[in-house]
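Researcher: Going back to the complex we discussed earlier. I've cleaned up the inputs and rechecked each line, so this should be the final set. Can you rerun the prediction on the complete assembly and write out the structure?
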Amino acid sequence: DAGVIQSPRHEVTEMGQEVTLRCKPISGHNSLFWYRQTMMRGLELLIYFNNNVPIDDSGMPEDRFSAKMPNASFSTLKIQPSEPRDSAVYFCASSFGTTMNTEAFFGQGTRLTVV
Amino acid sequence: SQKIEQNSEALNIQEGKTATLTCNYTNYSPAYLQWYRQDPGRGPVFLLLIRENEKEKRKERLKVTFDTTLKQSLFHITASQPADSATYLCALSVGGGSYIPTFGRGTSLIVHP
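Model: Rerun complete. Updated structure for the full complex:
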């Protein structure tokens, strides 16, 4: 397996534009996580899916952020409209099982810059 | 409020020495604690997991301790090598139906040859 695959690796967009980040989890994993990492706040959980169902989205900053998981092999994180403060590295991670007593596998991340 | 604290200052050590990183937490009762390694421009990579009823876990040159009384985990790398230079993150999972891990901000380790 190629691991968790995220696209794009880098995204530069203008304030107000819509941004869509994509993630393909490891085949067979049933838990998927979206994280955001900044120097100031570290790695923050945005949303957690289990079996394609959003379980905890309390970390989603505001209504401008939305995430979907239409099937077991694909998830998107959308920001509309984007703002400069959304600039960060966004990671997708997947794991097998409903608990974190197993390891999470992270993708390479998407570095988002909103100008 | 809940806090996970890792030393924000980089840890500089000489090759061959043992590196010890600290993860302190407050207002948590974690069921699991994990350590991850993160290299620049890459996602975190899982290293070790330790459960609340375990005191110590080892894997090759790595050792993790978990003291729920002190609310602290120590991460040791013995016989450190320059290739061990990276940022190390601890992550806590509370359990009780909510196992979502919360990460500390990480400590940078620099091993000098």
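Model: Worth noting: Chain B has a mean pLDDT of 91.
Researcher: Good, that matches what I expected from the previous run.
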